[in-house]
Amino acid sequence: MEVVTRMVADRPVVIFSRSSCCMSHTIKTLISGFGANPTVYELDEIQNGQQVERALQQMGCKPSVPAVFIGQQLIGGPNQVMTLQVKNQLVPLLIRAGAIWI
Q1: How far apart are CA 34 and CA 29, in angstroms?
Q2: Which intervals hold domain Glutaredoxin (predicted)?
Q3: What is the DSSP letter of 77?
């Protein structure tokens, strides 16, 4: 889990993804659509991708991607992000993290 903590440090929004995952694409598009510029790690394209994926699973991400961190806190996967969006809580969270300015 330490590897994940280092990867999300000092970044307002981090998305762990797989380049072939349609849900990852959807979540990246949603968050970017608000004007945020998330740091995206494609686990199938980075050298330590399997290690990161195991760490995400240990943190409770099932499935492991997409996994979204906002303000260095694990938000979860697509269900959690979409729930925040439906409840109009995603934008305020992005603002508090410094990912967008409105």
Answers
A1: 9
A2: 13-75
A3: S
